[in-house]
Amino acid sequence: MTLDKARKGQKIIIKNIPNEQIRVEAIRMGLYEGVEVKCSGKIPFGPVILSNRMQEIAIGRKLAKSIMIEVNDVKEGA
Amino acid sequence: MNCCEGLKIDIPEGAKKIVLVGNPNVGKSVFFNALTGVYVDVSNFPGTTVDVSHGRYGNDVVIDTPGVYGVSSFNDEERVARDVILYGDIILNVVDALHIERDLFLTLQIIDMGKPVIVALNMMDDVQRNGIQLDVQELGRLLGVPVIPTVAVKGEGIDEVKKNLYKAAVGKVNPKIYEMMKDYIDRVEEQSEALMIVEDDETILDKYNMEATGKREEAYKLRRQRVDEIVSRIIRKEGRGNTFRQRLGYYMLNPITGIPMLILVLYIMYKLIGVYVAGNVVDFTEGTLMQGYYEPFVRGIISKVVGEGNIIYRALAGEYGLLTLTPTYVFGLLLPLVIAFYFFMSLMEDSGYLPRIAALTDRVLSFFGLNGRAIIPLILGFGCVTMATITTRLLGTRREKVIATALLGMTIPCSAQLGVIAGMIAPLGAKYLLIYILTILLVFVITGTTLNRVLPGESSNLFIDLPPIRLPRTINVLKKTWSKTSMFIKEAAPLFALGALIITLLNETGILVVIQDLFKPFTVGMLKLPKEAATAFIMGIIRRDFGAAGLTDLTLTHAQTVVALVTITLFVPCIASIMVMFKERSKKEAISIWLGSFVSAFVVGGLLALIII
């Protein structure tokens, strides 16, 4: 599925970022293919907010639609 | 060494270049000031809005660099930082301890360059406040460089950094990345350049006439994995994660709470800047200081030197005089407003609020082919369109720059004009105020959406770091305000001067009257306004507030007033912002925007006149 479909609070794994420029910038911010991050917020119709520890990134909705993810909802301690 | 050529920094023989490096807003300036003291030079990097400060520390030179997330060339800040970092001798890397997973990428990149590095692990107070425990010694061991914990704003750890500055060490270069660059090391001046070649940096590839290796992503990924590994090994205790600041950051983003907050902040800005600074402060600086003391003084001198009543006198000290109108406008009127605006923007940037506004407004701006970042020039436009147009440089693509410039030039009234408009519209009552606002808003929306449709290409998407919410640091805010204001004055003052000269020329040759006459039929026929209003419109080109002020002398009905104000708002921006447009955009784009604002002003004004007069 794509990142714009992620729900707030979900843990997700980044699968693919097609835009090369963004892909390279994203690695610097801690987002790369295979990393697990949290969808910490969604602005209605607007950007998706991803977080990893204290790092938070806002990603425009259109860009989010192009990023492939997988939901990794294994509850801790379950 | 080709560092600092663009910057014209004198590096004395044998002096070391100590380079301050860090992500944005990590408190580098405090270290810079602590090292250099008061004697600091600021140089602008040609063709950018980026300033680089440098000063002396003992016999060595300290150079500050713009805050960046990595050394590459994604934007002007990065290119400038790269040019300085690549040829530095000692790197003082300031790291935000709360945000290490972001900041260590840059740290490892500099270590991979083989530079002697010392890390100041700053904002340790924030780490404690969040209940996080870090193993600083382990971090130093893993990086192979000295790591000093600091709370720079409180002065904690700064002496320690100074004491250890020359103990900066070459850290542990990532062996896999070293493997990738070892073939290039002998072919270039420094290992730092070899790393740039591996990371496909065009400037360095060009320098050595080499082809891109296409290995950037691989190197970045290796480095990123190492960062994550280091972070997981040095965190002894993870934070509570629900502090007041984090909640505040969330409220700023959530539209239900974020939009009222944004409106409140804009309202406070309006009250402080639009009412207090534009009113009380400018009354004093423009009226009392400049027009009361400065102008008569200059007129006195000029008349003594060249006499009165000749063209030289009029060019220098006349109605649009180079030494009267220009300084009064730039220093009396614009300077207080520009300082106030940049002060607010710096506060919002330093506190972490600005990127959140960008995220919040991203959706709305996307209808106009812009992303959330464009909110910065759009807000600045209400201060000074000239200043805002320069700021469109920070937008990602040419397309976005054109759209933002057009919106600024056509629809955003600058503070100089806004004051007069507000004064004229307030007595008319809510109905006319509403008509004015809705008309301008409508033009804004139509212009934005139309340009988004017709302009080829694609706009860039929002991808923005949301730094932690922090109390703004006074020194950062003041420094930023100062550096941006002085850059504006340097860039814009010559344009305002040139504008004054052009207007004098048009006036002396009688062309100004011809232009005014040319507009009269439109003014009377289309806008249903008295023909003298044409003079006001043309005066608006010189100074937007002149134009608006020219209308106050006319006897207009309420409906006519609104039509005139709408027209003058949409009408071409002042001559300085027109020149900035020509400087920043291509001739074709600038002329299109200019003509577009002519046409839209008269068409919209005409339509409105048809409806309400």
Automatic annotation (TrEMBL), chain A:
Ferrous iron transporter FeoA-like domain segment(s): 1-71
Q: Name one Pfam family in it.
A: FeoA
Q: Which UniProt keywords apply?
A: Iron
Q: Name one GO molecular function term.
A: transition metal ion binding
**InterPro entries per UniProt:** Fe-transptr_FeoA-like (IPR007167), FeoA_core_dom (IPR038157), Transcriptional_repressor_C (IPR008988)
Tagged with keyword Ubl conjugation: no
Protein name stated in the entry: Fe2+ transport system protein FeoA
UniProt lineage? Bacteria, Bacillati, Bacillota, Clostridia, Eubacteriales
Automatic annotation (TrEMBL), chain B:
Identify its protein family.
Answer: Belongs to the TRAFAC class TrmE-Era-EngA-EngB-Septin-like GTPase superfamily. FeoB GTPase (TC 9.A.8) family.
The record's function comment reads: Probable transporter of a GTP-driven Fe(2+) uptake system.
The principal localisation class reads membrane
Q: Which residues form the FeoB-type G domain?
A: 15-171
Q: Which Pfam families match?
A: FeoB_C, FeoB_N, Gate
Task: Report the locations given in the UniProt record.
Answer: Cell membrane
Species: Fonticella tunisiensis
Alphabetical list of InterPro entries matching this protein: Fe2_transport_prot-B, Fe2_transport_prot_B_C, FeoB_GTPase, G_FEOB_dom, Gate_dom, GTP-bd, P-loop_NTPase, Small_GTP-bd
Q: In what way does this protein cross or attach to the membrane?
A: Multi-pass membrane protein
Q: What is this protein called?
A: Ferrous iron transport protein B
| NCBIfam families from the UniProt entry | feoB (TIGR00437), small_GTP (TIGR00231)
Binding-site residues, GTP: 22-29, 47-51, 64-67, 122-125
Query: Domain of life of the organism in this record?
Result: Bacteria
UniProtKB keywords? Cell membrane, GTP-binding, Ion transport, Iron, Iron transport, Magnesium, Membrane, Metal-binding, Nucleotide-binding, Transmembrane, Transmembrane helix, Transport
